[in-house]
Design a protein that fits this description.
alpha+beta, 4-stranded antiparallel sheet, 4 helices
Length: about 110
């Protein structure tokens, strides 16, 4: 069995004006980290999946755990497309260096 690895890239912009807003922001960010997302840069997180079906299934779960205010966008791309990201300034985070489709056991 081969895997067609997919990346889910999640972009979010949540309000942080009130104490409740900041709490919701922190809760959502913590949810992402606890569920295997890696921070690419502030408010941009990604997660790798074995195939498109797994990514779509996760999106349905994600809908149940989003805050009520703000903006959240997702984009699902193949690992090949993701690997073509051009970094113009800075570099890959330590997490991005460690976690890739090569990190998974292929059966």
């Amino acid at each position: 069995m081969t895997y067609d690895f997919m990346r889910l890239v999640l972009f979010f912009d949540l309000p942080v004006k009130t104490k409740e807003d900041r709490r919701n922001y922190a809760r959502f960010r913590k949810y992402l980290i606890q569920n295997g997302y890696l921070m690419m840069q502030y408010s941009v997180y990604c997660k790798i999946f074995a195939n498109r079906d797994a990514a779509i299934k996760h999106i349905n779960i994600l809908h149940k755990n989003i805050p009520s205010k703000g903006q959240i966008r997702i984009m699902v791309v193949t690992e090949k497309q993701y690997s073509k990201i051009e970094i113009i300034l800075g570099g890959k985070s330590k997490q991005e260096e460690i976690v890739s489709s090569e990190s998974f056991i292929k059966i």
